[in-house]
Design a protein that fits this description.
Number of helices: 24
Distance between the termini: 52 Å
Number of strands: 17
CATH superfamily of the largest domain: Metal-dependent hydrolases
Strand order of the largest sheet: 11-12-13-14-15-16-17
Radius of gyration: 28 Å
Number of domains: 4
Largest sheet: 7 strands, parallel
Bound molecules: 2'-deoxyguanosine-5'-triphosphate, calcium ion, zinc ion
CATH class of the largest domain: Alpha Beta
Length: about 575
């Protein structure tokens, strides 16, 4: 079923109105769509419920024609009349209107005079100087458009959670200081700790909304106010990130927090459940349909309770099975930061790390870790100083000394990050591999290899009785490098068969395995190691991003290698098992 709600219907109506204007339709006609959009946004009932009750024309400004349009969108996702308009004006011109400083009038001129129908086309025309002399496009205007395109593009990029969260926390802290603010919190994908974030959503509870909105516009982190109304303000921040700040009355705080945390898919599923029970849920509360009475709204937990389920952690609200589980009264047991007993993947100055073994150990001691793996790069990665046997002997001797100190510090484990060759082989012969406490093996080259070849490399490596952990299995770097093309089903199956542990690399650009792969792993009983791959001691704090991703992937403490006491941890390694 298409997931249209009030906001989505309103934007579809606005887009259609803009297309009509660009197509040269008369003012009366295109304005009627904008008026309808406005009315749908202001309508305080769920549009789907209104439509099902056959009451769409009760919405002020909605006549029979637009009511039929909305019904069609809700039912089939089809916008009647859209084909006819897009035969005259390509739908892509809508993109032009999204550029700050470029309205439907200018978009129409660009399309009519120069045939420009997309942002790419516009950029090209500007580069070729084709806008020169076009009425309404003075040099200064064109400069503004170029800046607007840059801003539009940067906004359409997703931000790493680690970059977005600190800004969001600053915003929330600043808002809590504003007089009259009762509460403030992150919502949206940030609250769900999604690995990347489209925009930052912050929610504020206060009686006097307009006063809070005025205060938002003056916050030190705000560089530009994009739009500001009585309940929502969109701002550009000092870090170049866009944030939406919404204010709600304290008595609807819980409902708003639930609604704006999402995900949209999770909310759509909840709405269906509510509907099947004669209830209606929106950002203002949970209502009984029969008499319109608001049942709960102030507390998020109460919303879920009233729907017959326990409140679930924001990280799992993706409609990935959490609602079905909750209806049975259960929530997945999720790993927490407090469960972590050590870090099994860290580099030192012996290869490309920036901290010494001693510095890593001191930091791990501060974190209260029971053990710490020293896993520098292996011989085949010589460009970053991959260790030869003599260097390994030296490192092992130092580890033995540190472990003999008896100062209560973490137990140092002898490890290595092996490189998986094109044939799945690794750097050292078995007699050397046997001397480590455990081995990690990673794919570090061959990113353009075929699915078959890349997958086979991993499968062969997992067959190796000395390879305990696969490091950052898919090799992706968020926003920078695509993952290896891998048959993940085959990889996870092989891990289950061989008892190989999959890493969840906690570096904020990696988060690899991701949530989807983690759920696959968990389902098949594959264990994971949540590791930072720290290249300096300060990076042990990256474990936070790994924990968040593990929780999104439904990982329990019992699935995590480094959530086990040292002896149990060791017993999970391949070399500890009878062969
Ligand atoms: P993002 O920003 O792309 O990383 O993802 P979200 O989940 O933060 O999405 P966003 O910022 O568009 O909206 C925040 C939450 O508000 C979203 O998770 C659910 C709720 N929400 C906003 N707009 C809609 C909508 O049109 N339909 C539904 N069902 N929920 C919405
Ligand atoms: Ca968002
Ligand atoms: Ca948003
Ligand atoms: Zn590494």
């Amino acid at each position: 079923m298409p997931a249209y709600d009030n906001a989505a219907i309103a934007s579809a109506l606005d887009d259609f109105g803009d297309l009509l204007e660009i197509a040269g339709e008369d003012r009366y006609r295109f304005l009627s769509y904008h008026k309808a959009a406005h009315a749908v946004r202001a309508w305080d009932e769920d549009i789907m419920s209104t439509a099902l009750a056959g009451r769409l024309t009760e919405i002020p400004g909605i006549g029979a024609k637009i009511a039929a349009t909305i019904t069609s969108l809700l039912g089939s996702g089809i916008f009647p009349g859209m084909d006819e308009v897009t035969a005259r004006v390509p739908a892509s011109v809508i993109e032009l209107i999204r550029i700050p400083g470029l309205g439907p009038k200018k978009a129409k001129a660009l399309f009519d005079e120069l045939g420009i129908a997309s942002i790419d086309g516009l950029e090209q025309a500007i580069a070729e100087g084709r806008l020169a002399g076009l009425p309404g496009f003075a040099e200064k205007t064109v400069e503004n458009i170029v800046a607007g395109i840059g801003r539009y593009r940067s906004l359409s990029e997703r931000i790493l959670l680690a970059d977005a969260l600190s800004l969001a926390e600053t915003l929330v802290a600043g808002l809590k200081e504003v007089p009259g603010v009762e509460d403030a919190a992150c919502a949206g994908s940030i609250r769900r700790m999604k690995e990347t974030v489209g925009d930052i959503d912050v929610l504020v509870s206060a009686e006097d909304g307009p006063a809070v909105m005025a205060a938002v516009r003056e916050l030190p982190v705000v560089t530009e106010v994009i739009a500001s109304g009585e309940t929502k303000t969109s701002v550009m921040t000092t870090s170049g990130r866009l944030a939406d700040v919404r204010v709600v009355a304290p008595d609807s705080w819980g409902a708003a927090l639930q609604y704006f945390t999402g995900s949209a898919e999770h909310n759509v599923h909840l709405r269906e459940i509510a509907k099947s029970r004669g209830l209606k849920i929106n950002e203002y509360g949970l209502f009984r349909v029969s008499d319109g009475e608001r049942l709960v709204s102030a507390c998020e937990e109460d919303i879920y309770t009233a729907l017959g389920m326990p409140v679930m952690p924001p990280e799992v609200r993706e409609d990935a099975g959490e609602i079905e589980l909750a209806l049975e009264g259960r929530v997945p047991e999720l790993v927490t930061a407090g469960d972590i007993r050590g870090d099994l993947h860290a580099h030192t100055v012996a290869t490309d790390g920036r901290s010494t073994l001693e510095q890593n150990r001191a930091r791990a001691a501060e974190l209260g870790y029971e053990y710490l793996g020293c896993s520098d790069h292996a011989y085949d990665l010589r460009m970053v100083g991959g260790l030869d046997l003599a260097q390994l002997e030296e490192q092992w001797a130092r580890i033995d000394e540190l472990n003999a100190l008896g100062d209560g510090g973490p137990v140092l484990l002898k490890s290595i990050e092996l490189n998986i060759g094109d044939d799945g082989s690794v750097d050292y012969p078995p007699e050397v591999l046997a001397r480590f406490d455990y081995c990690i093996a990673s794919l570090h080259h061959g990113f353009s290899q075929s699915r078959e070849q890349a997958t086979r490399r991993l499968l062969v490596a997992m067959e190796n009785p000395f390879v305990d952990i696969i490091g950052h299995p898919t090799g992706r770097l968020l926003g920078r490098r695509d993952p290896f093309d891998l048959d993940m089903e085959a990889v996870i199956d092989k891990a289950a068969e061989t008892g190989t542990i999959m890493e969840l690399n906690a570096h904020p650009e990696r988060l690899d395995l991701n949530d989807v792969h983690l759920r696959m792993a968990r389902k098949r009983g594959v264990r994971v190691a949540i590791d930072t791959d720290a290249h300096e001691a300060g990076q042990f704090s990256h474990i936070r991003w790994g924990i968040a991703t593990a929780r999104r992937g439904w990982i329990a403490p019992g699935d995590v290698l480094n959530a086990q006491p040292l002896d149990v941890m060791r017993s999970w390694l391949k070399r500890s098992r009878p062969r």
